[in-house]
Amino acid sequence: MIEWKPLGTGARPVPQPVATSLVWAGAGGGALVLVALLNTVVGTDRPEVALSGLSLLAALLGLCARFTAAPGTTVLCWLFLNGFAIPPAGVLTWAAHRDTTWLACLFTAALVGTGLARLVHARAAYRRLAPDRPRPGAPVGDVPYDA
Known about the structure:
Elements: H1 20-41, H2 47-62, H3 70-84, H4 96-129
Helix pairs in contact: 1-2, 1-3, 2-3, 2-4, 3-4
C-alpha cells in the first residue's frame, strides 16, 4: 500500500556546519592556490593584496564552519601569507606588530563569516517556525487567525 506524505510540511532544521577538519583542509588548499595565483599575477612585493584575498577566503570558509574552526583557519591562512606572500619566500618570520595585525584581520574575517552564517540560518529558521502574520496594510478580516 502506498502512503502519501506531503514533502513540504513541518519545520526544517538549521543546516549543520561542515566538519572542522574539512574547513581546515579547504583553508590550507585554498590559501596555497590563492597565494600562488597572487604571487604570479601581482608579485610578492604587495602583501596587502594577499592579506585581502586570504581574509576573503577566511570569511567564505567561515560561512560553512563552526566558531571553533576560526583559530585554525586563521593560522593556516597566516602561514601561507607569511611564508610565501612576502619576501623571502619560504621563510617564516615574525614581526610583532605586522603579524599580530594580520592574525587579527584573518581571525576577524573568519568570525564575521561564521557569525553571518549563523545569523542568516537562525533568521531563516525563525521565519519557518513563526505563524502566519498579517501583511502590513492588509485589511483586518484577511488574517487567517483573526479572533
